[in-house]
């Protein structure tokens, strides 16, 4: 897709088409939805402000992905906490740039499939899964809420993911 | 998929959830460096994990709100279609457009604003009124600095003599009152069958003409509710009186007041709230009509907060967390060329 960003409506369409996908992409690298959102906004600002200099031959889509990726990588590099935790992200996404391809498979299709597949999980498994991925609770909190052990939470999560993974196998 | 990979995949999910121990991170690190293919698996699992966070997607990645923020930052104005009166806030979603906030500040006792914009009340008239249409809200400051937030489809009027002898307003619909203390001039809300007396308090009234119930919820201070030709009831903060117009009966119950007042901050907050009430509130905010096709659903209770979501997102979330299905019928034109409200039919989802 190539748009000359002369007019604001084209920019808005472009934004609406890619915003959520880019956020998801950034979140993959940063594992922080709020930061991912900020970075993505910033990428669009860069595009808008530099709209006069955009090479009309280059695809705008790959251009914004590139900007977002670079912003993410900078952010990841700057993370003060040199925790063990952040190390793996850096290893995969900073040191191996080719891994994070331009396209993310996240689109409408996946989401529809997902909601459908979640509905098919066994009830107790689904409960654990939803508390984690819908409500955003930590495993410990889930264990407290449902009065089960953290180990059980872990096991149910693995089970849920295994089911969902196989449901989505055709997409991956 | 080989078994050992499944094992690592599970460990990866645990890692993305931030639940791994240092030892487990070491294990993953060794695994990652062992084979370049494993980095791809890492990426894939990460993708899946993030995709599964539905809440995140709805709250953070809502492109309507994000666009509004961005457009404001870049000073891009009115690029879209559904603009809203008074406040220059652009909304593209048909339904959000309807639900958008119009803020009116009315400062003088004679200030006047009427829905159709024709200033029909002449200056000689001493009655001031504010009317909000469906999907609109208004914030009103009365001459004594009492603040009232009027929800959509509501009306409020007061005489020019307001704050001279007493402070009386007539009202129907839903509103949040933040009344300035003045023991000499009681604040009175006339709801027809009942009247509310307040001095310095914060409370919420819900009294639509077409609904049987009048709900008065007290957040702070104290109020008295005068029933027609009967005794007066006093309630304490955290309590609510529900008055039934048909029977003239009432109940007093303890409630989480936030559930009833959060609409004024554009939030819908539910705490163990039954589906029926949830849908009633969503319907009012988004200007849609609900039909529930299965009575089994009435037992469902919800806890959660909706802030800026579009109606699609709200429905999608309800569907994700409970066994319902829904279908949205967008605005249609009736034979008499009136626009009908969008309609959402909610049914029970079969669980296979």
Descriptive labels:
heterodimer, A: 172 residues, mainly alpha, 8 helices, elongated, B: 352 residues, alpha+beta, Jelly Rolls, Phage tail protein beta-alpha-beta fold, 3 domains, 13-stranded mixed sheet, 3-stranded mixed sheet, 9 helices, 18 strands
What does this structure look like?
The complex is a heterodimer of chains A (172) and B (352). In chain A, 69% of the residues lie in helices and 0% in strands. Chain A has helices at 8-30, 33-49, 60-78, 84-94, 108-119, 123-133, 139-146, 150-167. Chain B has 352 residues and is of the alpha+beta class. Helix content of chain B is 27%, strand content 28%. Chain B is built from nine helices and 18 strands. In chain B, strands 1, 2, 3, 4, 5, 6, 7, 8, 9, 10, 11, 12 and 13 form a 13-stranded mixed sheet that branches. Chain B has a three-stranded mixed sheet with strand order 15-18-17, covered by helices on one side. In chain B, α2 packs across α3. Chain B starts with a helix and ends with a strand. Chains A and B meet through α1, α2, α4, α5 and α6 of A and α1, α2, α3, α4 and α5 of B.
* Alpha-beta classification of chain B: alpha+beta
Q: Using DSSP, what is the number of strands of chain A? A: 0
Derived from helix and strand composition plus strand pairing, the structural class of chain A reads: mainly alpha
Mean pLDDT of chain B: 76
Beta-strand content bin of chain B: 25-35%
What Rg of chain B, in angstroms, do the CA atoms define? 26 Å
State the gist of this model.
With 172 residues, chain A is mainly α. In chain A, 69% of the residues lie in helices and 0% in strands. Chain A is elongated.
Q: Topology of this protein?
A:
The complex is a heterodimer of chains A (172) and B (352).
Chain A: H1 8-30, H2 33-49, H3 60-78, H4 84-94, H5 108-119, H6 123-133, H7 139-146, H8 150-167
Helix pairs in contact in A: 1-2, 1-3, 2-3, 5-8, 6-8, 7-8
Chain B: H1 3-16, H2 22-34, H3 36-51, H4 54-60, H5 63-73, H6 94-99, E1 128-131, E2 138-141, E3 147-150, E4 155-158, E5 167-178, E6 187-190, E7 194-198, E8 202-207, E9 213-220, E10 223-227, E11 232-235, E12 239-244, E13 250-254, H7 257-261, E14 268-274, H8 275-286, E15 289-292, E16 301-306, H9 311-321, E17 324-329, E18 343-348
Parallel strand pairs in B: 5-6, 15-18
Antiparallel strand pairs in B: 1-4, 2-3, 3-5, 4-5, 5-8, 6-7, 7-10, 8-9, 9-12, 10-11, 12-13, 14-16, 17-18
Helix pairs in contact in B: 1-2, 1-3, 2-3
């Amino acid at each position: 897709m190539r748009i000359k960003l002369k007019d604001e409506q084209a920019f808005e369409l472009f934004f609406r088409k890619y915003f959520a996908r880019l956020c998801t992409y950034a979140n993959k690298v940063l594992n922080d939805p709020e930061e991912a959102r900020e970075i993505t906004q910033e990428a669009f600002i860069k595009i808008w402000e530099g709209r006069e200099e955009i090479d009309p031959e280059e695809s705008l889509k790959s251009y914004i992905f590139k900007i977002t990726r670079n912003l993410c990588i900078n952010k990841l590099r700057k993370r003060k906490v040199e925790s063990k935790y952040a190390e793996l992200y850096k290893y995969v996404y900073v040191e191996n740039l080719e891994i994070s391809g331009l396209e993310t498979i996240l689109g409408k299709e996946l989401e529809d499939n997902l909601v459908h597949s979640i509905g098919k999980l066994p009830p107790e498994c689904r409960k654990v899964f939803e508390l984690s991925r819908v409500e955003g609770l930590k495993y410990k909190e889930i264990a407290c809420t449902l009065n089960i052990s953290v180990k059980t939470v872990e096991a149910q999560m693995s089970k849920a993911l295994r089911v969902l993974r196989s449901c989505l196998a055709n997409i991956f | 998929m080989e078994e050992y990979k499944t094992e690592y995949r599970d460990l990866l999910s645990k890692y993305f959830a931030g639940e791994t121990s240092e030892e487990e991170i070491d294990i993953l690190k060794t695994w990652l460096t062992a084979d370049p293919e494993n980095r791809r698996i890492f990426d894939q699992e990460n993708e899946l994990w993030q995709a599964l966070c539905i809440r995140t997607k709805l709250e953070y990645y809502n492109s309507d709100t994000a666009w509004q923020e961005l457009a404001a930052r870049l000073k891009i104005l009115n690029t879209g279609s559904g603009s809203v009166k008074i406040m220059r806030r652009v909304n593209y979603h048909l339904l959000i457009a309807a639900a958008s906030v119009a803020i009116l500040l009315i400062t003088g006792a004679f200030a006047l604003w009427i829905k159709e914009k024709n200033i029909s009340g002449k200056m000689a008239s001493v009655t001031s009124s504010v009317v909000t249409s469906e999907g609109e809200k208004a914030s009103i400051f009365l001459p004594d600095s009492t603040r009232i937030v009027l929800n959509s489809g509501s009306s409020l009027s007061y005489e020019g003599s307001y704050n001279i002898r007493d402070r009386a307003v007539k009202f129907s619909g839903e509103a949040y009152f933040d009344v300035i203390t003045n023991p000499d001039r009681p604040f009175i809300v006339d709801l027809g069958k009942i009247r509310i007396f307040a001095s310095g308090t914060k409370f919420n009234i819900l009294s639509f003409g077409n609904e049987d119930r009048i709900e008065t919820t007290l957040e702070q201070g104290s109020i008295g509710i005068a029933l027609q030709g009967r005794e007066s009831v006093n309630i304490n903060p955290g309590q609510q009186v529900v008055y039934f117009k048909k029977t003239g009966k009432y109940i007093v119950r303890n409630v989480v007041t936030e559930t009833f007042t959060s609409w004024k901050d554009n939030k819908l907050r539910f705490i163990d709230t039954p589906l029926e009430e949830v849908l009633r509130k969503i319907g009012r905010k988004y200007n849609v009509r609900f039909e529930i096709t299965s009575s089994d659903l009435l037992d469902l209770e919800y806890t959660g907060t909706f802030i800026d979501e579009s109606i699609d997102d709200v429905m999608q979330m309800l569907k994700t967390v409970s066994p319902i299905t829904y279908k949205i019928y967008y605005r249609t034109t009736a034979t008499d060329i009136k626009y009908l409200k969008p309609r959402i039919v909610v049914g029970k989802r079969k669980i296979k």
